[in-house]
Write a structure and sequence with these properties.
The complex is a heterodimer of chains A (about 220) and B (about 220). By secondary structure, chain A is an alpha/beta fold. In chain A, about 35% of the residues lie in helices and about 25% in strands. Chain A has one domain (about 5-220): P-loop containing nucleotide triphosphate hydrolases (Rossmann fold). Chain A is built from 7 helices and 10 strands. A 6-stranded mixed β-sheet of chain A has the order 6-7-8-3-9-10, with helices on both faces. In chain A, strand 4 and strand 5 (about 65) form a beta hairpin. In chain A, helix 3 crosses helix 4 (about 115-125), helix 3 (about 100-110) runs parallel beside helix 5 and helix 4 packs across helix 5 (about 140-150). Chain A is globular. Chain B has one domain (about 1-220). Chain B has helices at about 1-20, 20-40, 45-75, 80-85, 90-120, 130-155, 160-170, 170-185, 190-220. Chain B is built from 9 helices and no strands. Chain B is globular and about 55 Å long. The relative contact order of chain B is 0.15. Classes of the chains: A alpha/beta (about 220), B mainly alpha (about 220).
Chain lengths: ~220, ~220
């Protein structure tokens, strides 16, 4: 079966700095993969490349069936429609309410289910009383949960999560782990960049270690 | 494309409704500009009456710069730009949605300022059809050009000073055409104003077309 992510000698230059310096990686459908590595190893750049946000400077990259090297802007747009990226920044509109933010993503993805917004919010453990609260007034953990709900509501086939446990309390971390397993069980593919080796090991993820923008180990 | 445009416009208008920036800051600023012009020219009421159309549109242009800056300030961080790219909304939809939301806010401001010139400058509003066509076409042109240049400056630290530098020279034809059309309407000689209204329609169509065609590249590269 064709991998969901297939990178060969993938280089991503951020200005003159090589965010990725020749990565080879295959991730198959339904896999849960954890990216480990020190700061500056290229974990975030790899996730952003797979989301069609970071440039592919050389090499090849096929993500959810679209060739990012030759497909140009159209391929990147198709990839973006199919992935859910939880980045370092919350990716939320601060002056909108929690449900407004989730609804924006749901409508953009043409999610037909009218209850999807409420279900996604409750699914990440946010109670009804915060539904109309501006995101700017939420705690860091609640913002993280809102951003996760924005990913969840789209039901992406590829989840790309950058330090998703950061800012979450113990209950939120356990909830996130359950959501990731549910996504994998439903056929989605999940790639998590994390410093927390113990956490991702307990997830049963395949670990890929990055150093200096290249894969140095798998296991 | 139109569904995406409506999604972006609804989001921007909801952001404005919740933050009240146009209502609480831009509208008072525009009225203040009118009042200050009134103070500056008050000794000569004849001059003020003659200058009313130009002063009205200068106030609109200043307010439009602020409205455009606000519309793109909410998209200025990297994670905000990621939202627009990752949401799957087509770039032309983003452009039209941004332009529509700015237009709605500007139209509300322009109605307020029409009341302002009637009250502060003693202007008698006539030629309503020409006034309406002028307001609608000039607003569409300002919003389209503003959306195009606003996205160029998104993400730059000099965004706040760059937007007026980019926008105001480009909007000179709108200032000229809208002022002449308003003069004709207020002087009850609408036939003199329609060619200028036609210019405004052409300007709006040109920038709407340019935005729909170019927004994909601009959104990717900024």
């Amino acid at each position: 079966m064709e991998p969901v992510i297939s990178l060969r000698a993938a280089v991503s230059l951020l200005g003159r700095f090589p965010g990725l310096a020749g990565v080879d990686l295959d991730v198959h459908r339904g896999e849960l993969v954890a990216l480990h590595g020190p700061n500056g190893a290229g974990k975030t750049t790899l996730l952003r490349l797979c989301a069609g946000l970071a440039p592919l400077s050389s090499g090849t990259a096929t993500v959810v069936g679209f060739d990012l090297a030759d497909g140009g802007r159209r391929a990147r747009r198709e990839v973006r429609r199919r992935v859910g990226l939880l980045g370092h920044g919350a990716g939320l509109y601060d002056d909108l309410g929690v449900d407004d933010n989730i609804a924006f993503w749901a409508r953009a993805a043409r999610v037909p289910d009218a209850d999807a917004v409420v279900r996604a919010r409750r699914g990440v453990g946010l109670p009804d009383r915060v539904a109309g609260v501006s995101v700017a007034r939420l705690s860091a953990g609640q913002r993280r949960r809102t951003a996760l709900a924005c990913v969840l509501v789209r039901r992406p086939e590829l989840w790309l999560l950058d330090e998703p446990h950061a800012g979450l309390d113990a209950e939120g971390r356990d909830l996130l782990d359950r959501l990731l397993h549910q996504a994998v069980d439903a056929g989605a593919t999940v790639v998590v960049a994390s410093h927390e080796h113990d956490r991702t090991s307990s997830l049963g993820a395949r670990v890929v270690t990055l150093v200096g923008g290249a894969v140095v180990g798998e296991g | 494309m139109l569904a995406d445009a409506w999604l972006i416009a609804a989001k921007d208008l909801r952001l404005e409704w919740r933050s009240r920036v146009t209502l609480a800051q831009i509208a008072p600023f525009a009225v203040l500009v009118l009042v200050l012009f009134g103070f500056a020219l008050d000794p000569d009421r004849g001059l003020l009456a003659a200058a009313t159309p130009g002063l009205y549109w200068v106030a609109v242009l200043f307010a439009s710069v602020l409205a455009v800056q606000r519309a793109f300030a909410v998209e200025s961080t990297e994670s905000s730009r990621d939202i627009l790219l990752l949401s799957g909304v087509v770039p032309s939809g983003v452009f039209l949605g941004k332009a529509l939301a700015i237009s709605v806010q500007l139209l509300a401001l322009e109605v307020l300022l029409l009341g302002g010139v009637a009250v502060f400058y003693g202007a008698t509003l006539r030629g309503w059809l020409l006034l309406a066509v002028t307001v609608l076409s000039a607003t569409a042109g300002i919003a389209a050009a503003g959306s195009l240049y606003g996205v160029l400056a998104t993400g730059l630290r000099v965004r706040d000073t760059l937007v007026p530098l980019l926008m105001l020279p480009v909007l000179a034809p709108v200032l000229l055409g809208a002022t002449r059309a308003f003069e004709a309407a207020l002087e009850d000689t609408p036939a003199d104003g329609w060619p200028w209204a036609g210019l405004l329609v052409l300007f709006a169509l040109a920038y709407l077309g340019a935005g729909v065609a170019a927004y994909g590249s601009l959104l990717e590269e900024t």
